[in-house]
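Quick note —
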Amino acid sequence: MYTVKVKIPQTKAIYYPILIGSSTLEKAGNFIKDHTAARKMFVVSNNTVYSLYGEKVRNSLLQAGFDVNFLLLEEGEQYKNINSLEKIWTEAIRLKLERKDAIIALGGGVIGDITGFAAATYLRGVDFIQVPTTFLAQVDSSVGGKVAINHALGKNLIGSFYQPKLVLADISALNTLSPREFKVGLAEVLKYGFIEKTCGLRYFDSSFTDYLIKNKDSIMAIEPSVIENLVKYCCELKASVVNKDEKEAGLRAILNFGHTIGHAIEKCYNYKNINHGEAVAIGMRGAFFLAMQKGLINEKYYENSINLLNQYEMNYKIVKNVSPDSLYKAMHVDKKVRSGKIRFILPANPSEVEIFNDIKEQQVIRSLESLY
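Predicted structure written out below.
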């Protein structure tokens, strides 16, 4: 069992833990009992996750002495909306959930984001626990306290910062993911390779990208010891940034590398037929192209980075019926926009990125045109 600590600002507690291990869902109740005084648990999940882990988590919570209720939401990014949020609020009211009770997110990034926002806003805040079951959620979205829903005009535009009491990541759950779903998380892992130095950590003897190159076969085979290392290090990298900048006043924006274009793609696809990892992978390719246009990186680093994405089969393209102009417009309805200017996180050196808001429209369009 690995433990990564994340600071909790403006509270008496100093940290909340991310617990990472194998076969931990069977003991979820005991872990959770150690980190909340709540006795009533309201668990939000979906049908797929519940069919795999719902009864296991329910029984563990019951054995730990909790009163347990479940709500299952529809699956998919297109359901990360106000309607799903209202379902959680309505069920919480029906259950007479009080401030001393807790809400648990059991699932991937969509479930975690909606449930976290519900926990942050119901009765102005109840205890929130993350139990991520996808690779994306374990390496990224369950960490750092960003909770939100999508709007028809943009992704994650309505939300808050609300830290959980505990994140419990069982890497055994990754064995049930489809190859496509596993690669959603891999895109975020690769992102961390490209921003490692800017995060301010160094864990491996060589760079994280070198580790990813050397261990590709083991990673793709989901070898437990390697995956535990990956989840732990990605959580440490994100925690290092969040501990310095919880609410994205500056440094935390680097975690959006690849996301400026990626979120616009998701919005223009209406959150269908493309997943977050695929959109971010395309966005990273666009960011590298932009950086080369601006002379921030040389051709060799550009080619090495694109080759790494290709080695992990991140060679996705934008569909032709989504135009560069529509993507550019979508980027202006983004929470990273400052004074009407789109902010891009671009590579400047190996494993380092910087934040720019002076990218010309022509450069962005040219970059987008390279992604079809």
